[in-house]
Amino acid sequence: MADYENPEIPEGINVSPTHPLKDFALLVAGISTLLVVGVLILSLLAGQLTRHIPFAHEQALAASLDRWLPAAPETPVQQQRQQYLQSLADRLTAAMDIPADMPITVHYAPAGTVNAMATLGGHIVVFQGLIDTLPNENALAMVVAHEIAHVRHRHPIVAMGRGFAVMLALSSLTGIGDGSLQRWLVGVGMLPVLSFSRHQEEEADDAALHAMLRRYGHVGEAAAFFEHIARQQPAAGGLPIFDTHPGHAERIARIRDFAARHGDAGNPPVIPLPEFMKDGKAAAGAAGAG
Amino acid sequence: MYDLIIFLILLLLGYVFGQRAEKRHFRSIIEREKQLRDILVFSERTVPDAGNAEGTLVCGSVVVSVDFFKNFVAGLRNLVGGRVSSYESLLERARREAVLRLKEEARRQGAQSVWNIRLETSSITRGSGDGIGAVEVLAYGTALKAR
Predict the structure, then answer these.
(1) Which of A45, A108, A179, A253 is the most exposed place for a label (fewest CB within 10 A)?
(2) Residue A196 exposure: Cα atoms within 13 Å on the Cβ side
(3) What is the CATH number assigned to the segment(s) B2-146?
(4) Closest residue to B49, CB basis, from A1, A177, A242
């Protein structure tokens, strides 16, 4: 027994001496950078490719999704509203160099949602809730022209192509780590997609302003919708990097800047909305132009 | 946005409490190892002078949970490879604690040494998906008491 002993073992043999926070910071920074760069490249490529999909194919794809669009208007007044919106869109289309094979179809939705959106196949949905917040035709035309510009620049199909490519790539990360790690990876991976979306909104705003200038000779009231939203939600929290849309203040400033550059004089004449467009009820619901 | 805040709070809680528990545990391990230095442990299977001693099975087992922070860092590490240092310290604690508990049992039996000591490690929450894992380390051996 005398030959046997347990010598004292120095500390730290089995543990790496790195500080846990240093390890964490290096890993988070490195992996986030890789992921953001990867997704950025992938969505740029996907966006470039989807732009080449012929519009006829996009329409065929949209036809299979038409249950997402609102049902055809039932009452005569709703039909009248839809016809008015369609004729407004047609007048704006004429001012926007829209190719002949890219028909714009406007759908009227009686819901109180304060929103309008452009979707695949040149379909645009305008909600009554949005119309109720707008003071005149010029303000409505700005929103409709914005949505037409989305279609003109192929934003819905580009967004879909990017979305599919990025989600496919991110879902291939399933099986790595646990739920919280995956949510984090997907969250970081979606950041560049959000910034693309902000860029698209700015592009559409620009095209819409040019259309307004050509159609009405001035861009007065173009900022009316954003001014309304800014009054409704005075201090929207959150970091701009997490938003799909540019801030309202930023958009109002851009529109005013455009108006100033194109010599808007004081109070140019505005065209009132027809009486039948007003619902009379106060609009409620979530806000934001799509 | 709220998901992110909750996630960061969990990460912070995991880090603060996990590190505190780890430091305290290491202090206690070093302290108790000094107290139990007179109980010798060997991995050798053949016991010298076996005829004059009496053997009994002793074991010590411990379960340690991974904290949210360690778990997240290990998950990131899985993507790029390398030493998972956040788990290294966890397993080191578990192994030493298991041997300490074994020694405490040996002392209760009145033994002076433990032979043929073996360590076994198993994950308690393997395959539970979202759950935070826990690890069990079991140490067992033959305690010898002079007859």
Answers:
(1) A179
(2) 25
(3) 3.30.110.70
(4) A1
